[in-house]
Structures are given as C-alpha cells and as structure tokens.
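Hi support team,

I've been running sequence recovery on a batch of backbones for a student project. Most finish fine, but this one hangs at about 90% for roughly twenty minutes before it completes. I'm not sure whether the input is malformed or the queue is just slow. I've pasted the structure tokens below so you can try to reproduce it. Let me know if you need the job ID as well.

Thanks,
M.K.
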C-alpha cells in the first residue's frame, strides 16, 4: 500500500511537471530544458535518453507533443493506481500507530463520511472554480506569458512551489550527478520508511 503511494507521488509529480511545460512560455520552456537536462547526468545513457525525450537535439515542438500525450495519459494511470491503492488498503487495513483497540469507536462510512466527503469536495471545487474563473493570473509566473524563446534565458529560473524542495536539493549540491542522485533518493527514501517500522 505504502509503495503504491510512493509511485502515485512520482506519477503526480510527472503530471504536474508536464502540465507546467504545456503553456510553452519562457518559464515552461526553460523549466523543461533544465529538468530534462538533469537526465544527462546518468552515465553512458544520459545523453541518448535526453535526446529521446526531446525528440531531437533540443526542447522543441516534438517535446511539447510528447509531454502533451503523457500529460493526457498519466491521469488515467493515476486513477488506476488510486484504485489499486484503495484495494490494497481495503485488504490490509490502515495503520493503527497507537496500538489501541479502536473497534468501539467505529461508525458506518455511509452516510456520515459520505456526506462529509461530498461537502469537502464541494468546497474544494468552489474554491478552485473561484480561483480559475475570477483570478486566473493570480498564481502564474509573469515570465510564462512571454512566448518561449530559446535565445533569451530568463534571469531567474525558479520552479513552482510544489517543486521547491527539488530546486533546493539541486542548488545545494554543486555536482550534477550528485544533485540528481540526492533528488531521486530524497523521494525514494519514502519507500524505505515501512522497513524502519520496528513492530
């Protein structure tokens, strides 16, 4: 169950990154260039892998088409992984870190949690619709409204807030391969957490 959650995290991060590239503005273009170039740090196959992802020798329209296809397909994969995750969770049960018997506190899922979840989803959708319809430019980077230009690098390339941890890791390690390894290990360490459980 836990490891499928880690795979889900990777899939959501990939979907977010590929969606960030789709507007094809300055920040999108250079973000795609920087992140895909990180794969060139992989010994022996890195450069070939980067050119394969790009569909050429630089980030271009072929890259955009591939990212669009992956951005479209990945939500279906995420939905399938969520179903598998829930099936495993139903099979094994969720964790009980306190170790106390909680059978006495159980209540039926329907109607109590169903109503609570529907209310939460409704509030979230209303907030999202308000943000998208009335304040569409609130969270966007102004540089991303400039069309992509490979000859003009923005002075400060910084990722969106949900990738700031990766940016900090990459900036803190001067070696390219070391930074990529630290970034991958910072996420893969989540897969090791169940092994640290002592009971």
């Amino acid at each position: 169950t836990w490891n499928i959650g880690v795979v889900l995290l990777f899939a959501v991060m990939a979907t977010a990154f590929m969606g960030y590239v789709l507007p094809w503005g300055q920040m999108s273009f250079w973000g795609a260039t920087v992140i895909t170039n990180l794969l060139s740090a992989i010994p022996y196959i890195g450069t070939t892998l980067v050119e394969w992802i790009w569909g050429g020798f630089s980030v271009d329209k072929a890259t955009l088409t591939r990212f669009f296809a992956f951005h479209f397909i990945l939500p279906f994969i995420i939905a399938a992984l969520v179903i598998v995750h829930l099936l495993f969770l139903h099979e094994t049960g969720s964790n009980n870190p306190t170790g106390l018997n909680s059978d006495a506190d159980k209540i039926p899922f329907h109607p109590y949690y169903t109503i609570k979840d529907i209310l939460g989803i409704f509030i979230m959708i209303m907030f999202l619709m308000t943000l998208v319809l009335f304040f569409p430019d609130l969270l966007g980077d102004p540089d991303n409204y400039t069309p992509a230009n490979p000859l003009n690098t923005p002075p400060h390339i910084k990722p969106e807030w949900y990738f700031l941890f990766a940016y900090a890791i990459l900036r803190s390690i001067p070696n390219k391969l070391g930074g990529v390894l630290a970034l991958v290990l910072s996420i893969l360490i989540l897969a090791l957490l169940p092994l640290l459980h002592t009971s």
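--
Follow-up from support: It reproduced on our side and the slowdown came from queue contention, not your input. The chain has a mean pLDDT of 89. No action needed from you.
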